[in-house]
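Hello forum,

I keep getting stuck at the same step: I have a sequence, I want structure tokens, and every attempt I make locally crashes halfway through. Rather than fight my setup again tonight, could one of you with a working pipeline run this one for me? It's a single chain of 278 residues.
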Amino acid sequence: GSFRARHKLLVQSMALRRAGWRSCSQLARVYSKVEVSACSEAAAAENGRLPNANDRETRMQEVLIDGRVLKTPARKAMSLPTKALAMAVAAEWEWQKARHAMPFTMPMTTLVSTAIDQMPSIRERTIQELLNHLLTDTACCRHETDLKLRTKQEEVLDPIVQWMQQHLQQPVKLSHNILENGQDAGTVEAVRSVLLGLNNWELAAVDMIANATKSIIIALAVQKGRLTPMDAFNASRVEENFQMEEWGLVEGGHDLDMADIKVRIEAPSMFLKLLRYQ
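Reply #2:
Ran it on my machine without issues. Output:
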């Protein structure tokens, strides 16, 4: 249905942005059948805690390639917390061309591998790096001299900042200095508490959105359902969109950058939804 159409469009977008990259890696497709199956409790336990406590009553899922369990790059069983996510990963493998599997057209598989292979060992570092986004957060920056731009920033970003303040029960400071926007210690600790409450699956997705938008505030707003992926995209590019309205779009520059950022927001946003959908 609509998920299949959106996911296929996402994969096509990724393929388009990489179309000119001749050196990209390829995996020979030597399989014929892709399917999803409930996995054993032992395999499920290997990949850490589930998105929430209630999910422990739900069997984790695995993707089978010609009857063999799909593995991560670190050779761990790809045990997935929801059937919806397992179906999405399976679809990425099923939709590969006859001769080659293209890893860069597999955003769900990539995020799953990151959550399973990397996040357990880099979790603390990832949280600290996300907290560092508060110092230069896109959502908190306001132009000092250009009134038209500042008005646009206030229109788009102020409601997001206000939501964040209510969610944290802490003040969020705005700044004219894009290089550093200091926040109160209580605000930093409140954000840290939110991040500590995320499981490795959610943290991997939030990290990708924050890096794409240069904003932990926007990333958490997406994770909490306050912003859609397109809302997040527009919020992250208020100044760039303003400049394009003033001076026009540079083909081969702005358009490729926009396509890249959309993919890096849409993929983890969909990933988060699939984690909640059984």
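Strands lie at 27-28, 34-38, 61-65, 68-69, 79-80, 100-101. If your local run keeps crashing, start a new thread with the error log.
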